[in-house]
Specification:
The complex is a heterodimer of chains A (112) and B (349). Chain A is an alpha+beta fold. Chain A has four helices and three strands, in the order αβααββα. Chain A has a three-stranded antiparallel β-sheet. With 349 residues, chain B is mainly alpha-helical. In chain B, 66% of the residues lie in helices and 3% in strands. Chain B has a two-stranded antiparallel ribbon. In chain B, a hairpin with a 2-residue loop joins strand 1 and strand 2. The chains are: A alpha+beta (112), B mainly alpha (349). Chains A and B meet through helix 2 and helix 3 of A and helix 2 and helix 4 of B.
């Protein structure tokens, strides 16, 4: 059974990897900092490796989809991320693509 | 004490990540990670001070500093990645084969030409030393390894800087699909490779250790070898023998490349065989190739005289032996030619 578990686990990982960007973008209409985003996603049952998320946020910022700002009021400085206008446009397109994919997959799986 | 250790461990972890990050991002990422670790600790232990184990657990969750830094830099774990690998390998194969074959062939040919030149001089230089002067054979593998290293380094650099590279080699198109091999006329690659190897082994033996070919006799405490070949004039005979082997080698290589009997193989067989045969004839007939002292030396060492009717060595007749060998070579040649020509005519096109 353990071999099957391994296969299934790695395939599930592939699925998650494909959707993580959309998940992240969807949460950043309002500014959030890294760890709150992690907890946010966790509460919707999307578990993400912290070591992966932070570099991802940086990458999206580099691509112009997010903008960041350091908040230094509390004793812990926090970097808040938020979607840019470009990020908004990209998010809408991705969201539509996602809806199409879900419909197709439902058709394929249900078979009608 | 705990707090010091805590800080120490966290500082060390942060430092280990940061030192691998480019200068402009160091400060930013350090702040980010520091807050992150504190957040993670807070989630686990609340307001109290975390223990070393708890800190270690969080750091383990974040992962190997090297990996984390790599993710921040956005690099994949490839020396040479999928983007360039096909081109790299294709180039490598071509270069190694050309370089290796080139070195081997040019060494053999140069040595052959040099030793042929010695036919007219009186200096005796064993073939082995000659080849070594021109190009030591055993440096060839290390040179190939060097070439491999340089090409790999070049491509590793290309991978690192993601340089645009489009060599248009190793690309595929339907025309490039090879023919289905016709079983009747295909030449086994294994056979050809063995053929090449044997030619090289034979040639090497004749070049480097011809004096070992002969009769081994005990003389008192040691072994004495009576060579079957005439060692004194060996350097004069050798070029022709080597030339003959070279012809055989060339033919085997042609067969190896072609993979099946076709016109090229037929032409090669006829030509190389003819030249090889002529060289063999010269070697055996025009030179005193057999050791004239062969029988008498054996008689001297063993103390026998080979005069009886059942003594095989009484019948040691060098010209008969030469003729028999040449006849065998000739018959083999004719058979090979017939097969190659027949297959080419019947099946090629």
């Amino acid at each position: 059974m353990s071999q099957m578990d391994e296969i299934v686990t790695s395939m599930k990982l592939e699925l998650r990897r494909g959707t993580i960007v959309l998940c992240v973008l969807s949460q950043l209409k309002k500014p959030q900092y890294g760890y709150s985003l992690v907890q946010n996603l966790e509460s919707s049952n999307v578990s993400v490796d912290t070591g992966t998320l932070y570099p991802l946020l940086r990458r999206l910022e580099k691509q112009g989809l997010l903008e960041s700002e350091w908040e230094t009021d509390s004793n812990k400085p926090r970097k808040y991320y938020r979607r840019t206008m470009l990020g908004d446009k990209v998010f809408i397109e991705l969201e539509q693509e996602w809806k199409k994919m879900v419909t197709s997959m439902e058709l394929l799986i249900r078979g009608n | 004490m705990n707090r010091e250790m805590n800080n120490n461990l966290m500082e060390r972890y942060l430092y280990d990540v940061i030192r691998r990050i480019p200068e402009q991002q160091k400060e930013d990422i350090k702040k980010e990670l520091q807050t992150l670790i504190q957040d993670m600790l807070e989630e686990r232990v609340g307001d109290r001070k975390p223990t070393d184990q708890e800190l270690a657990a969080v750091l383990t969750e974040l992962g190997n500093p090297a990996d984390l830094a790599r993710k921040y830099r956005g690099e994949e774990k490839h020396l040479i990645g999928p983007r360039y690998y096909d081109q790299y390998w294709f180039l490598m194969k071509i270069v190694l084969v050309c370089a290796g074959a080139g070195m081997v062939i040019s060494t053999i040919i140069t040595a052959f030409v040099e030793s042929a030149g010695m036919v007219f001089s009186d200096t005796y230089l064993p073939f082995g030393e000659l080849a070594e002067q021109i190009f030591p054979f055993w440096s060839i593998p290390s040179i190939l390894v060097c070439i491999f290293g340089y090409i790999t380094i070049a491509f590793a650099v290309i991978e690192h800087f993601q340089i645009r590279l489009d060599l248009k080699i190793g690309t595929w198109s339907p025309e490039k699909i090879p023919q289905i091999p016709n079983k009747k006329v295909s030449i086994s690659r294994v056979e050809s490779t063995f053929g090449v190897v044997f030619q090289i082994i034979f040639a090497s033996v004749f070049c480097f250790i011809p004096h070992l070919l002969g009769v081994w006799l005990e003389q008192g405490e040691s072994m004495v070898i009576i060579p079957v070949f005439h060692m004194e004039i060996w350097n004069q005979v050798l070029p022709f023998l080597i030339g003959s082997f070279l012809m055989g080698l060339i033919n085997e290589v042609v067969k190896l490349i072609a993979g099946r009997y076709n016109t090229a193989v037929a032409i090669s067989t006829v030509l190389t065989g003819a030249i090889g045969f002529c060289l063999a004839v010269i070697a055996f007939k025009f030179y005193d190739i057999w050791n004239p002292q062969f029988v008498s030396e054996i008689e001297k060492i063993t103390g026998n005289i080979f005069a009886g009717d059942w003594d095989v060595l009484r019948y040691w007749n060098t010209s008969a032996i030469s003729n028999i060998l040449l006849l065998i070579i000739f018959v083999g040649y004719v058979v090979e030619c017939a097969k190659a020509i027949y297959c080419a005519i019947r099946y090629d096109k």
